[in-house]
Amino acid sequence: MDDNPLWVPEPSEFRQTHLARFMDRAAAKSHLNFDDFNSLHNWSAEDPAAFWDLVWSSCGVIGSADGANHSGLDRMPGAQFFEGAELNFSENLLGKLPDGDAIVFRGEDKVERRIGSDELRRRVTRLSHAMRSAGVTPGDRIAAMMPNMPETIIGMLAAASLGAVWSSCSPDFGEKGVLDRFGQIKPKMLIACDGYWYNGKRNDVADKLVAVMAGLPSVETLLVVPYAGDSAAIIERVPGAVVFDTFADTGQEDEISFPRFPFNHPLYILYSSGTTGVPKCIVHGAGGTLLQHLKEHQLHCNISPGDRMFYFTTCGWMMWNWLVSGLASGARLMLYDGSPFYPDGNALFDFAQAEEIGFFGTSAKFIDAVRKAGLEPAKTHTLDHLRTIASTGSTLAPENFDFVYRSIKTDVHLASVSGGTDIVSCFVLGVPGLPVYKGEIQGPGLGMAVDVWDEQGKPVRQQKGELVCTRPFPSMPIGFWNDPDGSKYKAAYFERFDNVWCHGDFAEWTAHGGMIIHGRSDATLNPGGVRIGTAEIYNQVEQMPEVLEALAIGQDWDNDVRVVLFVRLAKGVVLDDELQQAIRGCIRTGASPRHVPARIVAVSDIPRTKSGKITELAVRDIVHGREVRNQEALANPEALELFRDLADLQV
Fold first, then answer.
1. What is the pLDDT of residue 131?
2. Residue 397: how many CA atoms within 13 Å on its side-chain side?
3. Three-class secondary structure assignment of 606-628
4. Which domains does the chain have, with CATH numbers?
5. pTM for the complete prediction?
6. Average pLDDT over residues 365-379
């Protein structure tokens, strides 16, 4: 472990952050002395009622919490935060918009648009009135098959203003993938684009949309957003279809009344990845989502009114929901849709430079791809306004920490974060007042009693174990759809350890108080009974210029488990004996002899989910001859066939 930090915040700058001011308020409220982040975190985890009350008041929630209570804070599931409180999610996002631009949108190099705050309020107002006139009521589901564009946010805000429940996916989902999700929740209204751009190519969705509508008899109205296809053709083929703006123009411009709903009123339905079956429909409440995002944006990301906030995401990933909440802190949202490498790998950095983006969020895989493409944005772009780079989706490898500070920006807060769709937020993430160490996430989220436990349920330090959360938090799901007795919900998180959230990540506390995520614990390798996280292997082998990407599984073999490593190689590279020896040597030296794969196999592609995560479990099923039940969850399901019946794995 490297004890030399890559970045250390200036004390004078830290004193100007939201976190420092919150620390002072917490000290006054609790009559305790918080001289560092750890002491503040300990209080926030031990006294969640007091902490979340302070988040409500300090982060500017619009709503009524007078007389609200917290109950069952010793139970998971079963805890209740802010019983009796009421709020409207849309009112909170529209109530703090900055002057001027609220949304700046780029759709590859095809479309550039700017939406001012006044225009955003006006369009949400009209659509909300039109939805109400069309019969949308609290609890109705509004689904969207949309790119990450302004109309998607407008649709969500209008739906949430009425107490409707929003659920979205990206337009590249296949017909079955859409129906596997939306078919379960039976939406009343569907919003969809007529096409989308990706990697310079126009993709029409008319045929798919017709098929989707045939499979969703609950949908009464289809709103079609013109973007990259033929809206007129869709409207002609689908009864009840209407152009998005035409439908909204039937609404009034009178102010929205913003009726307030209970704290746990359902807001979003998100979905598990679904690579091992039909996706679980995870229902999130408005209050918990809002509080968590306000806390993370303001206290952990230091987002202030007027800041330009970007995250590269699709509408099928929870980071879209996380990004949109930035409006509640007065941020200007920077949206990008399409391939981040079109027309070349500088696309997102061009956007960051042109719009003077201060918070730049992306995936660990994107950072790795930029490094392997030989790009050096620090030499080609002016990124003076960039204060924070956030990375999530998978583990950010140590060498990519070095790359960010060497080749993107030397004086930047690099915040690796980890959480999940399950909590629509983070367990561990950046902390503005702490140093950044290579390969480490800085610390736990405030109010999150995060720990690492061994197999016996005992806390461990500087050892690998299960990531758990030992106390409730407001953004726990309010339930799963079609799970009336809560049995599926309880089985998902609370079967391993009673009354403790077990997240399914293989993690380790570091000597600095940070955390390393070693991969999903259900994909953990167990050769000889020793638990190995797949990220430990990737961190070594993906440093090699010959290897673009890797995926490791455990193969059942000879009454044990052997490690199999699949590698996608750079152009022109051959997996000969010399390269295999080099790969094994790199892993043995950088990780341990236990990590060295028994078999190394070259493949031309690696399957991944729509949000870009590699799918170890699906590959493991294929290798063992088991069916992958929901290939529609994959961005490239055809890649699975590369792993079936491999001769190299029969010996």
1. 97
2. 25
3. CCEECCCCECHHHHHHHHCCCCC
4. 117-262 (3.40.50.980), 524-649 (3.30.300.30)
5. 0.89
6. 94
